[in-house]
Amino acid sequence: MEFQPFPQGVHPNTSEPAMEPMASEPSVPIGTAFADLLLQGPEHPSLWNDLTGMFRKAFRWRGADKRFTLSVYVMSVLQGLFPILDWWKTYNLKFFRSDLMAGLTLASLSIPQSIGYATLAKLDPQYGLYTSVVPPLVYAVTGSSREIAIGPVAIVSLLLSSMIQKIVDPSVDPAFYRKMVFTVTFLTGVFQFAFGLFRLGFLVDFLSHAAIVGFMGGAAIVIGLQQLKGLLGLSHFTNRTDVVSVTKAVWVSVHETWHPENVFIGCSFFMFILAMRFIGRKYKKLFWVSAIAPVLSVALSTLFVYATRADKHGVKIIQKVNSGINASSVEQIDLKGGYAAECAKIALVCAVIALTEAVAVGRSFSAINGYRLDGNKEMVAMGFMNIAGSLSSCYVATGSFSRTAVNFAAGCKTTVSNIIMAATVMVALELLTKLLYYTPVSILASIILSALPGLINVQEVCFLWKVDKMDFLTCMGSFLGVLFGSVEIGLSVALLVSFAKIIIQSIWPQVEILGRLQGTEIFCNVKQYPVVHETPTVLTVRIETSFLCFVNSSSIKEKIMGWVTDEREAFRSVVLDMSNVVNMDTSGLAALEELHKELACLGIQMAIAKPGWQVIHKMKLARLVDGIGEGWFFLTVGEAVEACLANKAGNALECC
Amino acid sequence: MEFQPFPQGVHPNTSEPAMEPMASEPSVPIGTAFADLLLQGPEHPSLWNDLTGMFRKAFRWRGADKRFTLSVYVMSVLQGLFPILDWWKTYNLKFFRSDLMAGLTLASLSIPQSIGYATLAKLDPQYGLYTSVVPPLVYAVTGSSREIAIGPVAIVSLLLSSMIQKIVDPSVDPAFYRKMVFTVTFLTGVFQFAFGLFRLGFLVDFLSHAAIVGFMGGAAIVIGLQQLKGLLGLSHFTNRTDVVSVTKAVWVSVHETWHPENVFIGCSFFMFILAMRFIGRKYKKLFWVSAIAPVLSVALSTLFVYATRADKHGVKIIQKVNSGINASSVEQIDLKGGYAAECAKIALVCAVIALTEAVAVGRSFSAINGYRLDGNKEMVAMGFMNIAGSLSSCYVATGSFSRTAVNFAAGCKTTVSNIIMAATVMVALELLTKLLYYTPVSILASIILSALPGLINVQEVCFLWKVDKMDFLTCMGSFLGVLFGSVEIGLSVALLVSFAKIIIQSIWPQVEILGRLQGTEIFCNVKQYPVVHETPTVLTVRIETSFLCFVNSSSIKEKIMGWVTDEREAFRSVVLDMSNVVNMDTSGLAALEELHKELACLGIQMAIAKPGWQVIHKMKLARLVDGIGEGWFFLTVGEAVEACLANKAGNALECC
């Protein structure tokens, strides 16, 4: 097909604007024949239908569809729950080779990170490793992202420790603290499962992207500050996470006894990891260098400490790490105790943050590989894996951004790489835990520190400032909230600013004067298009809010009345373009009714153009359609304006 | 001008629908010549301009307007502040006669009501009378409503007593309680003045009509229950206002000693007032009968008690009422004490509720008399009058609905009726307070009770249920909150439900498929107009939210992608009608960008029709206009569809 310079039906030679819009004979057949349809909108679905519809969708039940038998239903549900049933048939040796390499690379990064994040979560190192075993295995059969790497992550580890510490101090009663961790993990899984099942995925959107950027940045700095304990080899430290408390604690501790050997080991290996990462970035082929740098650091530093017996000179070491794979933790989950409500609150925050991170990670890599990820299915899988995890000594797992990037770079094909990784971690748990005895604590701090720069996104903050000041405010609110308050305060500030933004947007009186584009039936905002002409004697306005309600209806009415009374002589009719109004409440109805009455008092006719079906429905219920007159509802603004112009004689008829 | 059966430009004979929309040659000259204007929207006004604009408006300053000299400015400000400067020139004797009669009728109702409401506010009777002197006088020179009757009202009296009681118990330390009352009154005035000056009148709209209906109903029942104390002649009573506490307190007290004589007097005069009101309603000429019934009841019952010395047999009497007009209370206002913050909170609630009532009363009567009331000016006047009141021993005054109705029925012409009323009350304060010694307390209860039915609006509740279930929920929330919690709980519930309503409305994925009305350039919702035809291979959708933001953008994107992938073969282009979107945040931008990318992956072209200037502005900043391509932005949906149809060949060009 040849290229057309102008879209079909557009003739540049006829678009010459006529001098006077009224003079041009509008040749478009306006929908007069359909105007009677206007007032016969569809019935509003009942509340009951809305609710049952949600459940039907949740269970994918299509009711009376004949092609749809029970076995097909069961199979479709199973395939929905276990995507592995879809792809195992096409799995082959070539895929496995890729997945094996990716899985091994992933494991070499996972083992040191898991141990580090466990200390961040104030748990013994083995719990981090446990969390890299069961959740990845469960996700491998239930999840649909091919690239995501499952396991403990920094932000969720911080969230857990900072919030559960308020219930119990882990240094005082570690057994009870663990009990709380498993309970929170179980509830997190339940929430995530429920979100997915009932398609409440939109709840995750409540934390806007801007809020997340700020939160992540703040949390990264807080995590970094927490690492000062390990890096400086301090024994006493604050339980609080805000900058002020941590700085104070460091200041106090540094003036007591501390051992610079820890800093030396930590910083030198931190440099080593960063250098390796730089090489990995520069030469794409050597990406594995950055992936194995942490495990290499652990091995070298452990060897160094063992050889020099530096632990006798003040270098803090991990000491005993229990060997053996995950034990059951079923009996540790305590839903009946007095802390269930508190745990549920923490679990809700963890569930949302973990899902936000997992969905963001999954989506960004699925987009690269050109397939779509169903957010609700992902949530069900995440829920499954955290419930299973909580029963086998794991804490909350989710998709890690840094490890997913490594997995992807290593060429993973399916979730089998997660299985390989989990198997490798299991072997390590059985055989290598004894070797970790002499691993210095500061090396874990440096591994965590090296993962933080990825969480701070300055570029995005600049973008927010440039494009949307309110989003920038949300971002800074959550950033400063996390930094100077706590994670909960940061999240609350972000939520508050975000919702305030929606409400402010609804409040601002949104109404614009329209003018006709010369020679057409197109009516546009006169501010946006200065070339349009306002029709004399007819004030044409568009209500630019989708919900005409108590916060904006009276200011919109006032604004229109202001325009009318400012130039009272000029206008004989007012046309309201209601196309933008999707819904209205009784205050909106009252404002329209008052507007109609006040205009009638001034001898001005009111016409309504392009009302939506919900608006028509409510106006009918409130008898406002009769009040304004059925004849004054129009399908287009053009028709309404023409009718108003033709009505000059009728003005005197209506008056209050 | 002769009557035209069809509006100009509409030819019924040409509206015959063509069979195939594509086949008909669209003869309307589409605005191609103006399409380049689309991407050159006006600049976004800076934050600084927005703020200075608000102040300029507040002080009515028009800057460099030449006709506008300083003296004109001062005069216009003065006339704005003192509407009396406008109308005193045309005032005449005939007006005065009407106002005199209305003022005297009003006073006969005001005196007993003021005494009753003072007891409701837990103050001595004279404070109610004081409040009927200064505020009406101040309002008379500053207010612009001609009919409103100013003074103490039931709801605000209840609000004051129920909230200040939490600071100090009036039966324990009445002097300190009064101090708090005057402080709250002063701050209420300051808030009201500030609302009016800075044009924050919209803040009053935050309490939606539905919430007010529920709140008033609940408060009326609560006030009624409080009257049981006076009616039953009880000495001990609860300070709490909820139904459960009051019922318990009555139950306990009734089982101790009480005097049925009080009930007898109260009930018989309650019947008398109701009967008089019935007569007043039935015979419009006798409206004054209902207006003087309360004062008549007070006189008769006082005489009865004095004659029979019933106070010695258990009938509770008012006893001493201080004589003399308002004393200064300047030194009683305590803004430095520890309770200033608490007082400010109470004052904010009182200011909003008092303004809501005053503006509602003022507007409903100004509408009857056919003039417009400026809400902001009214707020300034209310602020003035409460500040002045607080300095002269008055508590919060506002417009009373029942007394305004009497004032109107008595034929008032201007605010001079309020002056007459205040003067009469002053005379009563000087001369008649001694006569009130024997007035039974139960008669005050019956006067308050008789004013309550007007506050309960069952008809309106039915209307809310019929038209808008969410508004009904708001109404019931505030009703039950006041009834079973407290006034603050009721108001909080109402606010919460109201704002939740706005947010829920924003969340719901609002996107509709459009179809072309055969033979026209009109595109409508296919659900609302089943006669329209969807264009084959082009999916035309309208985003029906005015703020594309984090809570709805991803679900809107998902919904569109769902439609596209459900019938992947069918669509080659997607046209987004963005006319409803007034603004968007960075999440909205990200969703559009993702949508464009995902569609490109499927080889589907995306076109954007009718974007608003703020949307264009932000899309430009985010470089999304370049991403989608300037050629894919259109002024109308019709153009976009034609361009998509013409583009069949170009599909293969773009792919991820």
Quick gist of this model?
Chains A, B: It comes from Oryza nivara (Indian wild rice). The structure is a homodimer of 656-residue chains. Chain A is mainly alpha-helical and 656 residues long.
Draw up the topology in text.
The structure is a homodimer of 656-residue chains.
Chain A: H1 47-58, H2 70-81, H3 84-87, H4 93-120, H5 125-131, H6 134-142, E1 150-151, H7 154-164, H8 174-197, H9 202-205, H10 209-232, H11 243-254, H12 260-282, H13 287-308, H14 340-369, H15 375-390, E2 398-399, H16 401-409, H17 416-431, H18 441-451, H19 458-467, H20 469-484, H21 487-507, E3 511-516, E4 523-525, E5 538-543, E6 547-548, H22 553-566, E7 573-577, E8 583-584, H23 586-601, E9 605-609, H24 613-621, H25 624-628, E10 633-634, H26 637-646
Parallel strand pairs in A: 5-7, 6-8, 7-9, 9-10
Antiparallel strand pairs in A: 1-2, 3-4, 3-5
Helix pairs in contact in A: 4-5, 4-13, 4-16, 4-17, 4-18, 6-15, 6-17, 7-14, 8-14, 8-15, 10-11, 10-18, 10-20, 10-21, 12-13, 12-18, 14-16, 19-20, 20-21, 22-23
Structure description:
Two copies of one chain form a homodimer. With 656 residues, chain A is mainly α. Chain A folds into two domains: 14-22 and 32-40 and 508-653, Transcription Regulator spoIIAA (2-Layer Sandwich), CATH 3.30.750.24; 89-500, no CATH class. The first copy, chain A, is built from 26 helices and ten strands. Chain A has helices at residues 47-58, 70-81, 84-87, 93-120, 125-131, 134-142, 154-164, 174-197, 202-205, 209-232, 243-254, 260-282, 287-308, 340-369, 375-390, 401-409, 416-431, 441-451, 458-467, 469-484, 487-507, 553-566, 586-601, 613-621, 624-628, 637-646, and strands spanning 150-151, 398-399, 511-516, 523-525, 538-543, 547-548, 573-577, 583-584, 605-609, 633-634. In chain A, the strands form three sheets. Chain A has a six-stranded mixed beta sheet with strand order 4-3-5-7-9-10, with helices on both faces. In chain A, a hairpin with a 6-residue loop joins β3 and β4 (523-525). Chain A is elongated. Residues 1-31, 61-66 and 649-656 of chain A have low confidence and may be disordered. Chains A and B meet through α19, α20, α21, α22 and α23 of A and α19, α20, α21, α22 and α23 of B.
